[in-house]
Amino acid sequence: MAEQKGEISLIDPSQLLRPEPVFNDKPIEAFRDYTVDDSDPVRERVRKTYYDMHTNVTVELVKQKREKWLKFNTFKSTIKDALIKLNELVDESDPDTDLPNIVHAFQTAERIRVDHPDDDWFHLTGLIHDLGKVMAFYGEPQWCVVGDTFPVGCKWAKSIVYGPESFKDNPDTYNPKYNIEYGMYEPHCGLDNLLISWSHDEYMYQFLKHNKSKIPEKGLYMIRYHSLYPWHAGGDYRHLTNEKDEQILQWVLEFNKYDLYTKSTKVPDIEALWPYYEKLIDKYIPGVCEW
Ligand code: INS
User: What subcellular compartments does it reside in (predicted)?
Assistant: First the structure.
């Protein structure tokens, strides 16, 4: 494992060239395994989080959460202090890591830094992409904060984890306005015009706009849609997306490999890395922010 001064290489680059790609000793196909097994506490935790989400996330609920959170009057904090809170958050929807989310933040950022040394905005995007999960410390259950996202107000896509069956107790499943292919949308209206299940992605995107961050548009969109797996990995919703979304897709896919495949038990030296990232915070989103 290559170690460089001041930064940690999480992946041996030669591994990327092998026919069977392996990241951090775990083969790619071993990630995102949502097999149901109620005798396994982790699998059961993940399944329950998604079933709670898929039961409760409706058009109405998403509108209510947007109304509440997009006022940005819940608390005030610097980015660093908010990140430190993620020490206390283990993502209950994630089958690939049991470590606090702050570790995942640094793992993602550091791996991006290895591959894209000159794009400091990209390093910071990696560090803060999941920071919207702080909502869990202000009254939101994890099912409303973490996990993959999906549009509401139209038919549930097949590629959503646990499938359309997991929405059997969701009232929108039986609403004829919503349970059809286009639902409440126009063909090719574009991702930005869809109402996406409420989660850390949309909150963090809107937070960065509200607090006038200088992160480029690319980074903002990586954050906004990184959990929209049924679109960027499942290939669904192409009847709703437009040309601009093709560009966004390239950005999200570039980000996604770092987000997903860096999840491992290797913990970066967070204390040693703070000074570098504090500089980036000062450059792109300084001071006390409104959350
Ligand atoms: C990721 C992804 C994972 C989910 C995480 C989320 O972007 O969608 O599947 O478990 O909560 O941050």
Answer: Cytoplasm
Instruction: Tell me how far apart the alpha carbons of residues 46 and 55 are, in angstroms, rounded to a whole number.
Output: 14
3-state secondary structure of 289: strand
Q: Is residue 22 a part of any domain in this protein? A: no
Q: Which two tokens stand for residue 149?
A: 């996202």
In DSSP notation, 164-194 reads GGGGTT-GGGG-TTTSSSSTTS-TT--GGGS
Q: Ligand 1 atom closest to Cα of 129?
A: 12
Tens of pLDDT along 24-81?
668 899 999 999 999 999 999 999 999 999 999 999 999 999 999 999 999 999 999 9
CB contact set of 73 (below 8 Å; sequence gap of 6+): 290
Count the domains in the chain: 1
DSSP 150: -
Assigned domain for 37 exists: yes
Give Cα 188 distance to the centre of its chain: 24
- Could you identify the atom of ligand 1 that is nearest to the CA of residue 226? 7
Answer yes or no: is the C-beta of 146 below 6 A from any ligand 1 atom.
yes
Please state whether beta strands 289-290 and 76-77 pair in parallel, antiparallel, or not at all (unpaired). antiparallel
Identify the domain containing residue 104 by its residue range: 27-290
| DSSP track, 70-89 | TT--S-EE-HHHHHHHGGG-
